[in-house]
Amino acid sequence: MASLKSLYEPNTNLGNALHTNFDVDFVIDYRFATTSKQAAESQFTALIHALNSVGLTTEVRNGDNCAVLIFIKVASPRHLRAEVYRSRVQDWLYGVRTIAPEKDMQKAFTAEPIIEAERLRLVYLLITKPKNEGGAGITPKRGEWKCVESIFALHDHTFNKAWIKDLTSKTFLTQKDLTEIRNRFGEKIAFYFAFLQSYFMFLTFPAGVGFCSWVLLGGFSPVYAVINGLWCVVFVEYWKKQETDLAVQWGVKGVSKIQHKRPDFKHESVVRDPITDEEVKVYSPVKRLSRQMLQVPFALAAALILGTLIATCFSIEVFISEVYGGPFKSYLVFLPTVILTVAMPTLSAMLTGFAAKLTDLENYETVAAHENAMVGKIFVLNFITSYMPIFLTAFVYVPFAQVIVPYLDVFQLAVKPFAENEKQMTAPKAGFQINPDRLKKQVIYFTVTAQIVGFALELVVPYIMRTVFKKVKEVKADRASKKGGATATSTADDHPEESAFLVRVRNEAELSIYDVTTDFREMIVQFGYLSLFSVVWPLTAVSFIINNWIELRGDALKIALETQRPVPWRADSIGPWLDALGFLSWLGSLTSAALVYLFNGNDFGPGGNPSNIKIWGLLLTIFFSEHLYLGIQLGIRTALGKIDSPGLQKERSERFAVRKQYLAESMGQEAAEEAAEGGIAGGEKINRKSLEDEARDSTLQGHGTPEERFWGRQRGVDETLTVGRRYIQQAAPKASPRAGGEKKEL
Amino acid sequence: MASLKSLYEPNTNLGNALHTNFDVDFVIDYRFATTSKQAAESQFTALIHALNSVGLTTEVRNGDNCAVLIFIKVASPRHLRAEVYRSRVQDWLYGVRTIAPEKDMQKAFTAEPIIEAERLRLVYLLITKPKNEGGAGITPKRGEWKCVESIFALHDHTFNKAWIKDLTSKTFLTQKDLTEIRNRFGEKIAFYFAFLQSYFMFLTFPAGVGFCSWVLLGGFSPVYAVINGLWCVVFVEYWKKQETDLAVQWGVKGVSKIQHKRPDFKHESVVRDPITDEEVKVYSPVKRLSRQMLQVPFALAAALILGTLIATCFSIEVFISEVYGGPFKSYLVFLPTVILTVAMPTLSAMLTGFAAKLTDLENYETVAAHENAMVGKIFVLNFITSYMPIFLTAFVYVPFAQVIVPYLDVFQLAVKPFAENEKQMTAPKAGFQINPDRLKKQVIYFTVTAQIVGFALELVVPYIMRTVFKKVKEVKADRASKKGGATATSTADDHPEESAFLVRVRNEAELSIYDVTTDFREMIVQFGYLSLFSVVWPLTAVSFIINNWIELRGDALKIALETQRPVPWRADSIGPWLDALGFLSWLGSLTSAALVYLFNGNDFGPGGNPSNIKIWGLLLTIFFSEHLYLGIQLGIRTALGKIDSPGLQKERSERFAVRKQYLAESMGQEAAEEAAEGGIAGGEKINRKSLEDEARDSTLQGHGTPEERFWGRQRGVDETLTVGRRYIQQAAPKASPRAGGEKKEL
């Protein structure tokens, strides 16, 4: 644990600064390096006034490099509680909570104390909500708040340390661990950890099956493909259920209905809502649709650009490794990898930036809609970059190599400087043999090497960068102070009691913002390799299970150390990633079937010659596999839908409690039962048997409606019974034929 | 309109009996022909007591043939209102209603009067609900109530007449018409009419396109196939939306959650529910699942039995019409049709009976689950009987005829008595030409002839039967009365004022029970022909549009005249038929693509020779078509999901009203705002500027926690502003470098 400790306390002289946050809820990093002094001052004044006007207390301290830090907490516990209460009532009104909060606030908070995530979320909303919704309307880096660099909560380092220690000491997270994450970091991040945990747990099965399959059956085994496909269905359907269940247990089911308005939304016109009579800002949906249509050319262009790059590098690599026979071959083989490594991130970043612009252009009203649209585009980009190389190998290189390779001579250019003669660079016109290991090697690269590299880029590199950066800064500061003169360093002003704390806060202000989308993307792409290509190399899941054990802890470390404490947003699901998961799982049924058909029993597959493939057989296999998949999916969905779960039980019991209470309160004794009783007891029980039939008949004939007369002929139960029995006597088969005869003159 | 009138008033001497129901809610037809007199009397007594115990008033009158009629109405309006109110509160608790009924009952019924369907449904439930749920527990023909033949409401003939007249005078039903049907016959039947109406309206499009396509493009046009597939998607998705919308407008959305227990449900054990603490009767779901598994062999056996019958008749027909050359050919051709006509209904009825037994065996707890399971099985049977002949022609006869026909010699037996020589009965070994018209003729048969025959069987035949039956009865009665002696006819006892009414009720007691499932089945099967095979004969939709205009009026006539008035059940959708609709629409994308691929540009298709088919081309076409279909479906579903509708608007406005009311009532002035105000106003506005920094610092150092001291350094907004401005002055880039210098000694 020593290394963890050293990781954890990068600066040991911070001492007890890690143990208290001085009750600070949020810190605003106010930077004015590029603003005039006057503007900075007036914006600062406006900022403090805005914060105070919504019931927040502020303290200001010096920051690093032209910055001040504004510390924020809620002015009074009473105000906080009112905010929490209001939010809970809103939840109830939107159907997120089944039970309304107790009308007595005191009781409400005893029954359900305020959790940290709830407090931080509401304070953050208080700071950032628009003014007409009761917030201070502070929007970092935007509009009138250009100087507000970031708004962040302070890490609870005591908790973080215990948390990381706890995580590293166990294999599986319990429900309690997940709830703890939710209490600290909010449901959105808790859902990520819950997903990762479920995925990790589920991976044990394909890892076991994969290992056995690798030992016994080798690659491209139809048995493994079927089991793997089945596992994908079960996992996706299980997660859907698990997701709903967690949402119910955390009291956030349907929370996505409570939408946060996007501050960047630009409205075209203001319309009065006929229902709520409020003014609503609207943007023509037709216009938005027409802009959304741009996604199609965007996806095509991205596929074309990235595809061309990948295909080119791929072709060069094939050319060099399998055609080229000249010197430096073993070095030249890395040429395409170098091209890819340089060009790909640049292109990806460019396309991601373009995707962000496109999403802005689509101008969504709510934060959630905006994020979902962005996630969709990012998924498309990642799909292309992650899977296209393997698709090219499996479905272009292997079946068509003999047709294509002779045309690869165009890449002579790449090796011309090194080749000694023409022959070294000319593809053989016939008899070209494909490299059967290429596909497997590629899958191993993406599922092992790339995962490790990714982890390093995600966690280790930033850590080193940060350490180096800090060292450089320290050296610079040292040199500056040696050069003489009391330059206005930020620390000079610090009160000794707070100085260690302020150093810590200044460090946290420098950290980047945690984005759970990136981590989700990584996991979904990983799931894709398993679903689409693991039939090539069944050990895939074994690699992933190791990777994901580290990944989960690494992500926790990243949140705790590498990034600012995230705002604890709520969520009721993993959102659009679920669709991506379902899509990859479905696509897996197609690719696995195709791979098995092409390669089973023959590592060369069609051996580069398309005429070796029976296309109708391939199509039939895919068709069959897909429909089997869809059928099984339907079955599993139905079966899982019938199984009870803690969340559903909780929901039912809450619903029942509400019903019972309501009935006991307002219906029960009073209105209904009394009315019902009255109906039964006070009916038409007149029963005056003494009246003769004829007499009554004549009395009735005179007055009353025909209906009254109809219902008056038999007064009370007894008369009905008498008359009925007589009818039965008369009509019953062969029993005293004239029993009721004497009464027939009625 | 003359014929309608005569249809409507089959017995003109009923006179004004059609104009009043004497306030009768329900009539029980109590038949004791097969029961001993004593048992009949005691059961009758129990029946009357049971009815009276739940607040119902009874009158008894004589019935036909060993029967008495028990007339039922709710004892007092107050009791009825209490029932309605209780039901509305239950709706609210289950989330069917958004707004709770007014606590003041008087107001509640003024705002929302009791509609007829609501009254009849609740009275029916009062009669039939188990005793522990507050009903009388009368279960017709079951258990202790063997003599209760049926419980039926009386037709409102005045309404019925006006209704039929109105329906026949217009082409499209309006929203108001549908709501009227719902008010009279309940949501379940109203949904049928709404579906039929939407379907009819939508049919205009494929009818138009089909006609143009028939004139311009002929059969098997890919253009028509694509348009038809697109139409199917749009229609199914539109109906889903429309269905929800209607459910909201009729206030029944989610009503399927309120389940009616099945009286026939047999429990294995009684468990105490941990949540509700009520005793629940349970049946092992594993056992049920194992019995549900029987559906698979059932479906296979049904397919085998019906399939064999159909295939045999089909083969005989092909043999006779295309191989046989002997005498009587033109008569013998009808032989298989005769076999089918005789055997099919018998087999179907047998299998349906078997399906019903199987469903009983599955032992569902609720009426809805039972019905859905039964509908599923009926759909499978209907699928086989309706579509298999065409499937055989299109995908067996046309591609494989040349292979199969030589083997048809086995059917020589069928024609042996008529043939003159062997040659007449021997298939040519080669050069057999398929009949290209067979497929089209078959489709025309199923979409025109069969529809007309079905209509006749459904409406005209029962009408004739009933008329003849009545005539026979009249003649018999006449003869009996002529024979002499005052036999105890049922009418002898009638009060003259009621006698016409009683004659009418006795007639209604003889009518059969309306089953909306049959009508739904007919429409769904019809939709199947359009979706699966209309590419063969594009005029299909034209035939259907004519048929359905009549069908809707015919069904209304059937309800009004041929059957007892149905119990107005509620429903929030068309239930499992929606799945059948989706399935047929999807399957259509496969069959249409296959038909177009096989037959386009060549009426002979592959001409009976399988080697003429490029299987990979066929598979690719189907694969492409299916995925295009699924993609478009997703798109249309998303697009329709974004469109607003009257129902959704109603829902939103109700939700909003609830929210507004709640906030106004309990939150608004009191708790929240006051608390919030307190927070802002009473914060830390101490602002004692006079205190010196040093002085304060020392005072604070002595006592208070570090947190208190941290937040105490700047008291109030003004001090924060002052300090903040000073920091900005100090750090701001290149602006009066030592401006705040003199204050630095803090």
TrEMBL record, chains A, B:
The species this protein belongs to is Glarea lozoyensis (strain ATCC 20868 / MF5171)
Is Coiled coil found in the keyword set? no
Bilayer-spanning residue ranges: 189-216, 222-239, 298-320, 332-358, 379-400, 443-464, 527-546, 583-601, 613-632
The subcellular location is: Membrane
Protein name per the record: Plasma membrane channel protein
Database matches in PANTHER family: ANOCTAMIN
Question: Region Disordered: start and end of each range?
Answer: 673-746
Sorted keywords for this record are: Membrane, Transmembrane, Transmembrane helix
Entries under Pfam families matching the protein = Anoctamin (PF04547), Anoctamin_N (PF20877)
Membrane topology, as annotated: Multi-pass membrane protein
- Is this entry keyworded Transmembrane? yes
Which part of the chain is the Anoctamin alpha-beta plait domain? 23-148
The Anoctamin transmembrane domain covers which part of the protein? 181-654
Q: Which InterPro entries match?
A: Anoctamin, Anoctamin_N_fung, Anoctamin_TM
Q: Which GO terms describe its cellular component?
A: cortical endoplasmic reticulum; membrane
- MF GO annotations: chloride channel activity
Enumerate composition-biased segments (Basic and acidic residues): 685-697, 705-718
